[in-house]
Recover the amino acids of this structure.
């Protein structure tokens, strides 16, 4: 491989949560990419992808908001790196749906009042790390091996579904998260609920749904012998971390299960200063666990 | 209503509605042969009065009022498990989107108002700010739903953890964003989009 090929550069769509409740995901993503010498440049003036509420009641709006973001992403060089599983899914779905439907393409072009520019490849961080950067190089960049840490990789719904769209991994039996975190020396556990829904945006309207579904996920991770859960979605994180205390109170079970963003663990392994990983923002403190494993 | 007797006749079956759903969703409703795999894998099943496969069966029988009147369509989490596992490639998640849109547009008779309120506020936030203003979303939801104290205990710790962003700027390109919304409305007024 020639040295020039080693220089990776991406445009970056953080999504709304990464500027607010999931700022540790943003912070650790930037820290990790800097440590790995991968360029990451935020798309100017990006807007909300519409997430689930938009496509739930107005597909044309959802497609238009994502098409606008794809258009804006052309202002920055490099494939589009996306951290949030929901934004990733909506952007990819938009590319697929518009490629196959001429009528919708015309409608969206009318809404944007511009010719459509949808071709920029959209990539989840996992794909960038596993395929573009490569697992060997990731393993070589590890300064602090996470050996002894038992991680439950939680995919949730949208990293691999619907089956024809994300092109990230097998839609029923993915392994990309295990492969990526495995490169740091961490141990990954086998467990039943890695692709079950956490209750998603019912956290606002019907939090009881989240207490039940996320409670089952925490119980499953515990049964699987995990020390912690690793996620790639701000909503999953909010439901499993922010609502964990409520889940414990409602179910009478104690979990104390730290929930990490994938980039927090990867950046920790790559030697990024812990002050830049946002551990202080997590509701379930990871400190006792990381100290016990000699990682802090 | 769940177990009430159903009489099927030309008068009680609205098959035009099925065509509308198929057109909006881009998925066949008729292809379903009731294997039940969608309901077996549905994480929201226990919250619904009609499980996903029954919703499709009711549609096939032209009983759309029963489907829209309940809360089931609003309790779908859009996890796409049903679509992923359907052996007949019925895109049930897209059918659910189409049903919600038809119910939403008709300001239909659904019992589930809180999910609809949350959706409405989320979309309004995009139009007003460009990006989600999470704290405002939660605050306005509590105000409008009358659940003033919902998650009250979470507030202080979220604030201490730096997860509540109090101030939120509008996007610089908010004018362009407003234009997207108004041009979609224009398309619909002209009957050129559903």
């Amino acid at each position: 491989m020639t040295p020039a090929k080693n220089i990776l550069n991406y445009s970056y769509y953080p999504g709304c949560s990464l500027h607010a409740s999931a700022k540790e995901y943003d912070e650790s993503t930037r820290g990790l990419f800097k440590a790995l010498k991968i360029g990451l440049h935020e798309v100017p003036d990006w807007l909300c992808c519409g997430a689930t509420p938009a496509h739930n009641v107005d597909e044309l709006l959802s497609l238009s908001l994502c098409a606008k973001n794809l258009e804006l992403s052309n202002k920055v060089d490099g494939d589009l790196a996306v951290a949030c599983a929901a934004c990733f899914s909506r952007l990819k779905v938009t590319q697929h749906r518009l490629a196959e439907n001429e009528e919708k393409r015309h409608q969206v072009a009318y809404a944007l009042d511009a010719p459509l520019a949808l071709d920029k490849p959209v990539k989840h961080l996992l794909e960038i790390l596993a395929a573009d950067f490569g697992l060997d190089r990731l393993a070589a960049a590890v300064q602090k091996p996470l050996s002894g840490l038992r991680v439950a990789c939680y995919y949730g719904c949208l990293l691999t579904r619907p089956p024809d769209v994300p092109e990230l991994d097998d839609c029923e039996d993915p392994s990309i998260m295990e492969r990526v975190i495995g490169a740091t020396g961490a141990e990954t556990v086998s467990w039943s609920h890695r692709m079950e829904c956490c209750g998603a945006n019912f956290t606002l309207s019907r939090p009881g749904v989240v207490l039940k579904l996320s409670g089952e996920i925490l119980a499953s991770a515990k049964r699987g012998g995990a020390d912690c859960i690793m996620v790639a979605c701000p909503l999953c994180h909010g439901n499993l971390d922010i609502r964990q205390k409520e889940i414990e109170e409602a179910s009478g079970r104690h979990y104390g299960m730290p929930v990490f963003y994938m980039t927090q663990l990867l950046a920790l392994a790559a030697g990024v200063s812990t002050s830049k990983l946002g551990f202080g923002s997590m509701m379930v403190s990871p400190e006792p666990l990381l100290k016990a494993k000699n990682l802090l | 209503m769940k177990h009430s007797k159903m009489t099927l006749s030309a008068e009680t079956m609205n098959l035009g509605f099925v065509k509308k759903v198929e057109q909006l969703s881009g998925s066949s409703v008729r292809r379903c042969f009731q294997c039940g795999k969608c309901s077996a894998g549905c994480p929201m099943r226990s919250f619904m009065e009609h499980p996903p496969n029954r919703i499709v069966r009711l549609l096939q029988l032209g009983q759309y009022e029963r489907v829209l009147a309940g809360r089931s369509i609003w309790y779908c989490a859009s996890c796409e498990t049903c679509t992923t596992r359907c052996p007949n490639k019925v895109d049930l998640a897209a059918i659910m989107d189409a049903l919600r849109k038809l119910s939403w547009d008709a300001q239909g008779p659904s019992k589930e108002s809180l999910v609809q309120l949350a959706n409405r506020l989320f979309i309004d936030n995009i139009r007003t700010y460009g990006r989600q203003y999470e704290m405002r979303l939660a605050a306005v939801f509590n105000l409008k739903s009358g659940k003033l104290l919902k998650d009250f205990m979470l507030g202080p710790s979220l604030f201490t953890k730096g997860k509540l962003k109090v101030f939120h700027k509008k996007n610089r390109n908010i004018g362009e964003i407003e234009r997207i919304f108004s041009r979609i409305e224009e398309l619909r007024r002209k009957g050129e989009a559903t």
